Amino acid sequence: MSDLNCGSGGGATTYPQLRIASVFIILIGSMSGALFPVLAKRSSWLRVPKAVFDFAKYFGSGVIIATAFIHLLSPAISELTSPCLSPAWQVYPYPLALAMLSVFSIFIVELVAFRWGTAKLAALGVRHDAHGHGLGAHAAHGPESEMPNEYSTSETSKEDLESAHDHSQLDFGAAGQIIGVFILEFGVLLHSLLIGLTLAVDPAFITLFVVIIFHQSFEGLGVGTRLAHLQLPPKYNYVAICGALLYGITTPLGIAVGLGVQSTYNPDSTTASIVSGVLDSLSAGILLYTGLVELLAHEFIFNKEMINGSNGRVVYALSCMLFGCGIMALLGRWA
Fold first, then answer.
1. What is the pLDDT along the chain (335 residues), one digit of tens a residue?
2. DSSP E strands: which ranges in the chain?
3. DSSP characters for 37-57?
4. How far apart are CA 120 and CA 172, in angstroms?
5. Cα–Cα distances in Å, from 48 out to 54, 224, 325?
6. What is the DSSP letter of 149?
7. Could you give the angle at the alpha carbon of 168 between the alpha carbons of 232 and 115, nearest 5°?
8. Do residues 130 and 151 touch, judged by C-beta distance below 8 A?
9. What is this structure's pTM?
């Protein structure tokens, strides 16, 4: 308790040159992990075997789930039970409650959004596939079309309606996928910003720096693979690239901000503990929902490729996912 600093004093100032260099080193690592799958999927000159993409996809799912439990929920519990906080914070498991609130909030928002979208599609005679079988079981579960009722329209109006079906399918499918990936990115970006702030002022800089390089690269691979598998119309192709770029710059931005307030920002202070704890809890809920529902369930349970695939394919996918989860969980030993 003698080393406890709950005031507003500054963070560590050791290794100043390396802390500045970490902005650019982590920028390269984060950007490479997130951008490579996106560019490889969309570039004719960069050919990557499908097996590599499959490995990265399942590996990334494991990374995201481990991030939620080990790198978000666990720190949130530590932060919101800090001895620097008033006793009122100790009488209720606020981190778990906030994570639960986040899970149900995301679920309700997505439920309302997809019910609204399904109703709009139904008005046009298009059936929405809630499990996304046609979209590789990604979060956004695009629509499957049905032919309109041939007795309800003339030939001319049927042609117009079919054209409207195609346009609506693209728009609603794209909007759904963008919403799904936005939810994932939002949780990851909050986490990335906070660890950047922490790295800039943490006394155990060297250990944390090495771990975060791997952490951000693996997490970037998970996010980038999900972005690469978005099935969007050509006019929305920029979404995946922008998502990867946004992920790549978030942690370096957090480090830069942390260096700017290094003399006054204390990550163990009461205010910092509350802010970080609340944001980590909410982010944990977002990634738990995304990882378990949008990725795990739709990747294995509602995916026709998995349902009809061989046992070997399922075992391989599970092994990749558990490997990603295990590696990311192991990094939690140091950060």
1. 446 667 666 677 888 899 999 999 999 999 999 999 998 888 777 777 888 888 988 999 999 999 999 999 999 999 999 988 999 999 999 999 999 999 999 899 888 877 887 777 677 665 555 554 443 334 344 333 333 444 344 444 444 444 444 555 555 666 777 777 888 888 889 889 989 998 998 888 898 999 999 999 999 998 998 898 888 777 778 889 999 999 999 999 999 999 998 888 888 788 889 999 999 999 999 999 989 988 888 888 888 888 888 999 999 999 999 999 999 999 999 87
2. 127-128, 143-144
3. HHHHHH-SSS---HHHHHHHH
4. 9
5. 11, 14, 23
6. P
7. 95
8. no
9. 0.78
The closest alpha carbon to 9, from 203, 269, 195, 254, belongs to 269
Alpha carbon 333 to chain centroid, angstroms: 21
Tokens describing residue 49? 């075997």
Residue 37: burial class (beta carbons within 10 Å; 0-12, 13-18, 19+): buried
User: What's the token pair of residue 188?
Assistant: 């990851």
Rounded CA separation 96/281 (Å) = 7
Rounded Cα distance, 184 and 222, in Å:
10
